[in-house]
Every structure is written in structure tokens, then in C-alpha cells.
Amino acid sequence: MPARHMLSRMTTGPRRLLSSFARTRAGRGLVQAIDTRVGVARAVEGFDRPWWLYRAHGVIPRPELKYRPPLPVDDEDVALCERLVDAYSLAVEQEPAQSGMWAQEVFRARQGKLVSPLRDRDARLLAERLAQMFRSDFVLGMAPGSMGLKQTRVRASLGRLLTVAKLVALAESVGSVAAETVEQGDVGVAFSEGGLEGLIARTETALGVRLDLPDIGAAYGPDVDGRLITPDMPDHVYAAARIRDAIRLHLTDGRSPVRLVEIGGGYGGMALWLLKMLDLHYTIVDLPIVNVLQGFFLSHALGASEVSFHGESPKRIAITPTHALSTVEAPFDVLANKDSMPEIPFDAATNYLRWARSNCDGIFYSYNQEAGALVDGVRQNVVPRLVEEVGGFERLRRDAAWLRRGYFEEIYRVVPVNDGARWGLRTAGSSQIADVKRPESPLVTVHHGREAD
Predict the structure, then answer these.
(1) Within 13 Å and on the Cβ side, how many CA atoms surround 220?
(2) Is-contact 140 146, C-beta < 8 A?
(3) Which domains does the chain have, with CATH numbers?
(4) Is 255 within 8 Å of 228 (Cβ atoms)?
(5) Widest distance between CA atoms in the chain
(6) CA angle 117–121–126, rounded 5-degree value
(7) Contact 446, 395 (CB under 8 A)
(8) Separation CA 263–CA 284 (nearest Å)
(9) Residues whose CB falls within 8 Å of the CB of residue 312, separated by 6 or more in sequence, listed in order
(10) What is the 3-class SS of 349-413, one letter each residue?
């Protein structure tokens, strides 16, 4: 818990005294020092390879951090942002009142510099702010944003180490390097052939894509042999590769192009890599303000002529607000959600699944945490329990994620609506979650809360 929030847990007398002290120069310095140490401790807690911190001196690469400058705004940027302004204005005019985490004041405050040019219909100012989106407050929760610009030397070093660890996990997940086993072998074996550059080259060969974020939004991160690897990029590439593999394994009828709908797409990171890997018709459903980020990022990465916004005729990549599900082309083949279903209000999350149950004739891929954390007095969702509540899904497999401890991937088959006998399906009963299996485990199906090989 940040030091400034600890005051709220104290009784009135001490709280007043400490609150007054926190407003002094010395108090602000103390609060900042405590926050820094708490932040480092939390980052270490989330590090999957703690032995790197004490056994790997001189073994783990330390790539330089690169900060790309914002690109100058041109007439094409302004024309794109005029489209984004029109789509946003139409969406908020039709949008019902928001609820849930993203309706909280903290998120509204972060989005202020994005909302104001949209509200004022100032396309040039919007383009200028989006040109440095990855250094802003309004991407926080989707990317490191402004937080990565204000780090201490220790935090920056640890953040770089976390990114390198995720690159190793990504390589291990696709088999381009042997998995590190600390009890049996040396530390840093992934770098034994060609260092970090060699590891990335082998991973690119396995994935079939070049691992370098397009020059959009003044992004920053480790620079590896001329490639920019942002802290969140390995997760996006990993999830995209897993969805690609799921499509190849479970949609074997030769349908092409596959139609995929992603609920909650962040700034479009996973979409970018999946569209590089497969021929897809891709729809993102998200809040209107986040649609703006997705539209700008994917238009620059893949071409503005490839992307449609709310109120326009659908193109290969369609960016759609949450209240406009009726505009999504159906039936579609894949429903995907990464790192957001727990944060969506319960009623909205179950409504998405009911909608998918009627409009998706393929699979549902989920990559989410299951902590069930208490936020403003409400427990976050756990995907297996949402599925159990809705019914109409058959789980094909459940795997612990390679890149993030405490995150799980699940693949469900959408049971056809006319298969009424199976609509009573209950998956991962509320009393316990079914056995966790690492990737490459046998496929499992779930019936009435029981697993059967």
C-alpha cells in the first residue's frame, strides 16, 4: 500500500498529525522514499525468477533502454484523428452510463488530456497527444506510460530485468530455448548461444514475426539489436501465439479468414501481433475512450485504410464501442479476452458471454488472473465462475501461463444453441478450481464440475 494511503487506516489524532507532516518538505520526501521501497518490494514479489537476483551476476544481459521521440504530426495524422473524433462523439452520444473500475475518478482524471481534444473536436491537438501516448497518463493500466519515466535507477534496472525474463519465458513457451530449471542446471542458459540477440532471433523464427514495436506513440523499453521491446510486448506476443495455436488446433474445418472478437483490447497490442500471425477479420469491443487509442495505434501499425471506427462501414479491423454489439458481424469464430474480464462489472461480463454463446460458433480464449481481489467493496470476477454462471461452454483445456505467475489460460468450446442437453454445463465449480496443467498437457473437457481426460 502506498505510504500516502496508510494515513486513512489510522485513528483521527495520529492521522491529523501525520497528515500535516506529510505536507511538509521533509514529509513529502519520506513518503516518496517509502513509496519507492514499497514499489521495489512489490516488483520483486512479482518476479518469476528470483534466483536471477542473487545467482546471475554478470550472466543476465542488461540491454540499454531506448526512448523513442514523438514523431511529427502530419496531415494524415490529423485526418485520422478527425475520424476518431467523429467516432468517439457518436459513441458517447449513444453510450449508457459507465460502471465498474474504469468509471472511477482516478481513471477519468488520467484520461483528461485525451478527453479534452475529443470534446473540443480538436483533431490536431489529439494527434499531438497520441503521438506520445506511451509516455502519458491515459495509457496507465494498459502500458507503463508516464510511470516508466519517473523511475529510480533501482526500479529502472529491475524493470529491465523483468522484461528480459519475459523474453526468456516467451522463448521457452515456443521451444526456441530449453526451459531453465534452477534445481538442475545453471542460471541464464537461455543466453548461452548468441546472448539476448540470439535468443530473440530464434524466437522470431519460431513465431514467424519480427519482435520490434512499430514506431508509434513515443514508446520506450530495452533496445536489442535495433529492436524496441516494450515491457508489455512479450505478453501481447505470447497471447497472440497461443490464440493462433488454439485456432489451428480447435478450428480444423478450414474456415478462412477466421473472424475474431476481442473484448477489452487495451491499446491494441495483442491485436497487432495476432494480425501479423494470421489472416483474420478482427473486431475489438471496448470503451469509447479506449477505442481512440486502439484506432490510432492499429491505423499507424497496419494502415488507416484497414481499420474502421464506430459509424463507418466495417473493414478487416473494426473498432467498436461496448454498447454497439449489434454492429458486430456474426457468427464469428473466436471470442478472446486478455487481462480484463476480472475488471468488467459482473453483469456486463456475463452479458458478453451470453452474447457470445448465441453469436460465436467456435472457441472462447481467456488469459486472466483469478485473485478475486476486493475493489471498492466488490470482488473481481473469476472467469471459470462467470462461465459456470452463464453455461453453454465446454472447457477444452486449462493452463498456467508461461509469462505471468498467477495467470491462467483457458480455452472453451461454445456449445451450439440447439444442443440443449448440454446447456446445463457447469465448469470449474465454485468450491474449487479444476487442476492446473502446464502448456502441452492433455486436453480436458469439463462436465458438471468434473474433469475427464
Answers:
(1) 21
(2) yes
(3) 1-45 (no CATH), 235-452 (3.40.50.150)
(4) no
(5) 70
(6) 40
(7) yes
(8) 6
(9) 83, 87
(10) HHHHHHHHHHHEEEEEEEEEECCCCEECCEECCCHHHHHHHHCCEEEEEEEECCCCCCEEEEEEE
Q: Which of 87, 82, 79 is nearest to 287 (CA)?
A: 87
**For residues 396 and 241, what is the distance between their CA atoms, to the nearest angstrom?**
17
d(CA 263, CA 352): 8
AA identity, residue 261: V
Can you tell me the distance from the alpha carbon of 36 to that of 154, in angstroms, rounded to the nearest whole number? 9
* Complete edge-to-edge strand list for the sheet that includes strand 407-414: 307-308, 317-321, 280-286, 258-263, 332-338, 360-369, 407-414, 393-400
**Three cell numbers, residue 335:** 471470442
Alpha-carbon span 142 to 137, nearest angstrom: 10
155-161-162-168 Cα dihedral, nearest 10 degrees = 180
Tens digit of pLDDT at every position of the chain (453 positions): 444 444 444 444 554 555 666 677 777 677 666 766 666 666 677 788 988 988 888 899 999 999 999 999 999 999 999 999 999 999 999 877 665 555 555 556 788 899 999 999 999 999 999 999 999 999 999 999 998 887 778 888 888 999 999 999 999 999 999 999 988 878 899 999 999 999 999 999 999 999 999 999 999 999 999 999 999 999 999 999 999 999 999 998 888 899 999 999 999 999 999 999 999 999 999 999 999 999 999 999 999 999 999 999 999 999 999 999 999 999 999 999 999 999 999 999 999 999 999 999 999 999 999 999 998 889 999 999 999 999 999 999 999 999 999 999 999 999 976 644 334 333 333 323 333 333 333 233 333 233 333
CB 285 within 8 A of CB 320: yes
